Amino acid sequence: MQKKELLYEGKGKKLYKTDDDLLIVSVFKDDLTAFNAQKTGSEVGKGALNCKISTQLFHLLESHGIKTHLVKTLDDSSQLVKKVDIIPLEVVVRNIATGSLTKRLGIKDGTKLPFSLVEFYYKDDALNDPLVNDEHCLMMDLVKSESDLEELKRLGREINSILKKFFEIRGLNLVDFKIEFGVDSEGNILLSDEISPDSCRFWDIKTNEKLDKDRFRQGLGNVKMAYEEILKRILENK
Ligand code: UDP
Fold first, then answer.
1. What is the per-residue pLDDT for 219?
2. In 10 A of CB 38, how many CB atoms?
3. Most-buried pick from 31, 65, 79, 124 (CB within 10 A)?
4. What was the pLDDT predicted at 34?
5. In the prediction, which pLDDT does 39 show?
6. What CATH number should be reported for the domain holding residue 94?
7. In the listed set 31, 63, 82, which residue is the last one of a domain according to the structure?
C-alpha cells in the first residue's frame, strides 16, 4: 500500500492518503502533550509502543464483535485503517474517579464509581473540548440522531466491560479512557483513533502505581518503561 501525501497531523498521529480512497495510513508519533498542549515532550519509541498496544486491543475488541477501523499493521508504528468521518465527540468511560471528574464535582480522587460513567466531550481545541450532554450533541448536530448517541453509549459500556476484565486479570485497574468513533463510507459506526496509555489511565492493582500518560503530565518519569509494562501485560497469556 503506497503512503501518499499527509492528510492531517494530530497530537498523537499523522494520517496519510493512500492509492485507495477508502483507506489511510495512520502513523503513531513519539510526541506527548498534556494540559491542552501547554506541556509537550517526546519519548523515542512511544509511538511504536502505542501502535502495538492499540493494535492488540483493537484485535481483542474485534474478537468480541466490536467493529473497528483497523485493517492491518504495516510496520512498528503504522496501521492501515479505513477512512472514516470522525464523530467530533470524545467518549470517556470512567470506573474510578480522578482527573477532571474529581475537579468538576469534588469527588475524592480514587473513589470507585457505583457504575461505569459515560461522558461526551465536544472535540474542539479552541473551546478546550467541553463536556456536553445529549441535547448539546443533538442541538449542534454532532451526531445524526438520538439512536446514534445511544449506540455510542452502548459501545462505550461494552468496550469498557471487555477491557476492564482483560486488564483486571493482568493486575491493572482500567481507571478511565477516551475513545473516538467514525462513520465509514457505508454508514457503519466504527471504533477509530487509538486505545493506548495516552488515552487510558492504568493503575497497578497492588501498588496503585500509575502506568500511563499521567507519568508524563505529573513529571513522574519512566514514561516509556510504563508503556512497555502495559504492552508486556497485554501480551501475557491468561
Ligand atoms: N483523555 C484523552 N484525551 C483528551 C482528554 C482526555 O485521551 O483530550 C483521556 C484521559 O487520558 C483519561 C480520560 O480521557 O484517560 C479522562 O480524562 P479527564 O476528563 O479526567 O481529563 P484529564 O484529567 O486527563 O485532563
1. 95
2. 7
3. 79
4. 79
5. 87
6. 3.30.470.20
7. 82
The rounded mean pLDDT for the chain is 97
Considering only CA atoms, give the Rg of the chain. 17
Do 111 and 186 sit in the same domain of this protein? yes
Q: How many C-beta atoms surround the C-beta of residue 121 within 10 A?
A: 18
Contacts of residue 151, defined as CB under 8 A and 6 or more positions apart, other chains included, come to 189
| Residue span of the structural domain in which 64 resides | 3-82
Report phi then psi at 189, rounded to 5: -85, 120
Q: Which residues does residue 132 pair with via DSSP β-bridges, in sequence order?
A: 120
**What number is the average pLDDT over the span 116-133?**
98
- Residue 129 beta carbon below 6 angstroms from any ligand 1 atom: yes
**Of 88, 182, 97, the residue nearest 129 (C-alpha):** 88
Residue among 128, 131, 199, 210 to mutate when testing ligand 1 (max atoms within 8 A of CB): 199
Tell me, yes or no, whether 77 and 90 share the same domain: no
- Residue 221, Ramachandran bin (φ over 0: left; ψ between -120 and 50: alpha; else beta): left
Q: Are residues 179 and 101 in the same domain?
A: yes
Percent of residues, the chain, with pLDDT higher than 90: 96
Full-prediction pTM beyond 0.90?
yes
Domain match, 70 and 132 both: no
pLDDT in tens, 25-75: 999 999 998 777 788 999 999 999 999 999 999 999 999 999 999 999 999
Q: Which atom of ligand 1 is nearest to the CA of 178?
A: 14
Q: Is 100 in the pocket of ligand 1 (CB under 6 A)?
A: yes
